[in-house]
Protein 1
Amino acid sequence: MCGIVAYVGPKDAAPILLEGLQRLEYRGYDSAGVVVSNKGLKVRKVKGRVADLAAAVPARFKGATGIGHTRWATHGVPSDENAHPHLSNDERIAVVHNGIIENADELRAKLEADGAVFLSETDTEVLAHLIARTTKEADSLEEAVRTALKRVVGTYGIAVIDAERPGEVVVARNGSPIVLGIGEKEMFAASDVAALVRYTRQVVHLEDGELAVLKADGFHTFASDARETAKEPLTVDWDTGHYDTGGYEHYLLKEISEQPDTVARTLRGRLDERFNVAHLGGLNMDAREVRSFRRVKIIGCGSAYYSGQIGAQLIEELARIPAGAEPASEFRYRNPVVEPDTLYVAISQSGETYDTLAAVQELKRKGGRVLGIVNTVGSAIARECDGGVYLHAGPEVSVASTKAFTSTAVAFALLALHMGRVRDLSPADGRRICEGLRRLPDQIKEILALEPQIKELAAKYAASPSMMFVGRVRGYPVAREGAQKLKEVSYVHAEAYPASELKHGPLALIGPEMPTVAIVPDDELLDKNLTTLGEIQARGGKVIMIGHRTADPKLANECIVVPKNEVELDPILLGIPLQLFAYHAAVALERDVDKPRNLAKSVTVE
Ligand code: G6P
């Protein structure tokens, strides 16, 4: 959350910063600002979107060193004053920041006592005043920043410029990502490679505690004790096409529609037909170790957590190991018992969700073995884990996760197949799952072809004050994610319950005003599910059934019929109509589909 861009080189910084901020806007979008250095600092910052900022930047806004920021408010409301960059009172130092300074109140009181005048409510502003004070005695900006950061408790990714040292940017990282981009006689930095790919493919990820000095002719990186560190640049293979809507009206629809390809990419090279097994090269675990685990514990946040519930079910069914999922945000705070014979799996699209990262770090401290199922290669969570599975779904730009959710479920099916085949999954069942996985991309295409029907249904039900989502066992996490998608993008209230629990409370809510979306696969629980549908209809509730049965008005008011796969894999497909449903409900309600209110794509704060 929050996006940072920095530039130093021969060109005008402002257009590069604005373009970069636009690409980072999905991370936060309530206010934005830029500062450039040219015989003093020139600043523009506004409440609103990057487009509002671009309109406020005058044509003559010259300066070849600059930093920019797009914000997701944590300390202080979205406003012009609270927007970054923040400047010291002498307007010499400018800072943009991502993260939270936990001792900001205490530092602020001390700085105020020392004469600093604060112009915003943000925690970031303390950094500008602190650095302005340390810079007086420091030989370099780098030293001033390092000294100031010693007094700071909390998380940060920061970029700093000094009016008296033009041609130089200092960046530092502790818990919030910073990536350097190496250009031809120019250097970039950002909180996310998305802002860099238009200019360079050569990047360097900073580690926590590292600081870097950027000048047009190169960069130096340092550990927190000022020792210089040696960094090898990586080449990123994501191209700018991933960051365009590619003719679709929204990223969300583009990313839903990409799923036949993204699922194929998650599977590519990983299925072995000869032995009916899955090869997952990044696990770093031999068969003996896989057999030694007695439990699997999965952690993630938001949609990642719900995909983890699908994963837990797949592992229990295929590998016969007790498995469960828990929100990482809860797990990290409850002093969990960490067992040596438990395999921990952390899930994250971005690889930088702070709650998930902190949970992984806690697990590692306690000696836990952690695998990551992550989309972003080289991200903090991926680097922290002992091994894992990359999704290869490509960058996900829309705030609501779709293709990464589906690919995570597919990655779990591969992991479950792998673990199952080293334990007691038979070759015949292995073959059945391999073949089922291979069918997924074409079956997703068939589901996408249902879009006109789903669009019509979404328009019909979008005005409902509230919707219930139910599913049983394999269908329950699908229902939870369906409700989450609808809430996130359409702001329609939605609740998800196990279908079996409906009669134990929430049935009281059912009536003509509360339609129910029911996940009803053709599995051993079909009859039980159909009984639940009868109970809902008997209370006057409308039912939208997502399943394999051909439309039957006696069963449900509406039916979305998806292609059948193996029972274990059906949840992967049943979730896709719900993504389209949420998308079209949001469009019908004229919501800001890709940037829903109050949300951010990567939540890098607590
Ligand atoms: C945020 C987003 C959610 C997302 C969650 C986990 O809360 O708004 O849509 O599911 O983070 O993100 P991750 O990148 O860790 O998968």
Note: Residues 450-595 form a domain with the Rossmann fold fold (CATH 3.40.50.10490).
Protein 2
Amino acid sequence: MKLKEKVAVITGASSGIGKMIADYYAREGAKVAICDINMEGAEKAAEHLRQSGGQAMAVEMDVTNEQAVNKGIDKVAEQWGSIDILMSNAGVQIVHPIEEFPFEQWKKMLAIHLDGAFLTTKACVKHMYKQKSGVLLYMGSVHSHLASPLKAPYVTAKHGLMGFSRVMSKEGAKHGVRSNVICPGFVKTPLVEKQIPEQAKTLGISEEEVVKKVMLGDTVDGQFTTMEDVANVAVFLAGFDGNALTGQSITVSHGWSMN
Ligand code: NAD
């Protein structure tokens, strides 16, 4: 087991990629805090992990709310004694051309992706610095390296996470804390399923064309990345021994981006 008795906080873990990472972490022996705004989903995911012999708790958390984040992280630390891994993963997608992008939706996107990373990091490093160890992981995207039309705030936020993680690798080093970004290509989750008809409508093409041309056109083999692929990378980065691997990003995208 690569993460035996490690305490992992995963945001956005009641669905999609975060839920799969929670599953993989629990199988590797970690105690997993499923943090999500969707408490019903979080309870269900935690219960599923406990039924399978894992250790898990559901934590209600809107990652854009400082009080909720601090309260949630402190609850995990109180119950399990430390915070060893943060997987900042919660995210949403909203697509519009810039001239139609409502300012409120721009702010919401930056808040969930960037404020969420900042607030959860600030709350976790308090515990990690005390114990002189910790792993910070951020869910970036191929859009941390490349741009696509209609996704101004998403691309901005995902690029921003690269800078934030690099700062954390420098600030965290003397406290034994390392920081890295995972950059997946398109993964079939509710976040992506929702985009297919939206993009078809905005671009005036069929849903099949959105998948073949827009989403997978630049991969080496026309394949979706899977939640399992991303979870494997998340286990590798969380379990890596020592501080050599920090300030990096790993792209898992069937060659869509080769950065
Ligand atoms: P998803 O919609 O399946 O899951 C997102 C989760 O985040 C949900 O459980 C949702 O309730 C939670 N969430 C939303 N707002 C929140 C908030 N304010 N506070 C706490 N939780 C909140 O989506 P997913 O595809 O699994 O995406 C997870 C992450 O992976 C996101 O950061 C996304 O940008 C990133 N990502 C996804 C893909 C993809 O193709 N699916 C590709 C690259 C990166």
Note: The domain at 7-186+226-252 is CATH 3.40.50.720 (Rossmann fold).
Protein 3
Amino acid sequence: MLTILQLPVLNDNYIYLIHDPVSGEAAAVDPALAQPVLDVLEEKGWQLTCILNTHHHSDHIGGNLELKQKTGCTIIAAHADQHRIPGFDHGLGDGDLITLGKHAIRIISTPGHTSGHIVYHFTEEQALFCGDTLFVMGCGRLFEGTAEQMWCSLQKLKVLPVATRIYCAHEYTQANGRFALTVEPGNLQLQQRMTVIDQLRAKHLPTVPSTIAQELATNPFFREDSWALQETIKMMSRKPVEVFAQIRRLKDNS
Ligand code: ZN
Ligand code: FE
């Protein structure tokens, strides 16, 4: 069993620290800052062995160099992003396999938010570290990719085992859920989920992780095939990718 710690930093980012007690290895996913990670490492007596970056944005790589300098960790990121990941050591692409101790991690390339974005799927552990590709009830903005690319990327995540836990890099859930209700107001599970989310956020508690099952039921960017949603946004009988693109546009302008 891996231990997964979730560190809220900056306005709404999460850094994840993953520790394997058997091998003693520890990974930090998207360390926006070094100090909160160093504090936990010291408190727990863990040694950081690697950083797993999902993409090059500053709120995901800000702690890279300081952590590398202070811990000697290896920095792992998409091969395609080697020129823009500080301290880059080792490049990965779609389908590559790495390990943390004996735990397999499969790399899935998910262009859309950025061209080089990758996600880390801990296959036996059923945990997905998905950066800014998939959010709870949302998906990343299209900074370097097309709607078609992002839609294809999300199709790869949609088919993961439904129990897979979704560890995304931002706490955007409440705003995402409010938007989701505007495009699918009759979705009962969505309504119920928002009640729970509002209660959690009133107490400043995290809404992450989610699961693939929960996202299939409530995330509009996983639900372009919903007739009710298509009717609400007046995109009946259109191609799934066109419906998706329209949901993304509506969210951008909301
Ligand atoms: Zn980003
Ligand atoms: Fe981000």
Note: The mean pLDDT is 98.
Protein 4
Amino acid sequence: MAEKAFLPLADYCKFPETEMKRRASEFYAEMRRRRTVRNFSDQSVDRGIIEDCLRTAATAPSGANQQPWRFVVVSDLTVKRQIREASEKIENEFYSKKATEKWTDALKHLGTVPSKPFLEIAPYLIVIFSQKYSISANGKKSKHYYVSESVGIATGMLITALHHAGLAALTYTPVNMKFLNKILARPSNEKPFMILVVGYPSETALVPVIQKKALEDISVFV
Ligand code: IYR
């Protein structure tokens, strides 16, 4: 366990209230432009941009600061093809057998289908793994706390950073993702959390007509 040590909160910035209001509303305006995209361009993306977005994700808070995440950045076409092939096998089964009628009904407005060309076309697949426990050099396991909360927060920050940088992303989760450990040679303490498909949208990208819930419907002030 690390020793207890504290420093003054030197990096905190307190803004005047007018500036805070402007910052909050400008950030909202930027974030409400974000859309999940399923039509990607094959245009390459500078690796440094992805690296900085990952650094942003890694600033996320986590249970006991255990940072129980691993981001596997896939750009190799052969590996992307393997992921596409394994995913489509699962999706074919999902759409033809596994999914309940309620589930496919809930998805209808998105127009999703078992074919997933974006897994091959997009320049990056960021495969996010959560670590339920760590394994030290001598093989000792130590449990991580609040793993899904922590990895969910880091993933949200990654999506925000990618959007802020000018990239599009898709949160993609086939119902069974165990194949990702095999393809990406990840150890057994790492569980696939999500595939984040990242790149530029294609010039002809279409997005479904959807609404976000109003503030009154998502919040209660007590
Ligand atoms: N994994 C499938 C189905 C799917 C499920 C949900 I929940 C979505 O928000 C979108 C799709 C697919 O990607 O087609």
Note: The two ends are 39 Å apart (CA to CA).
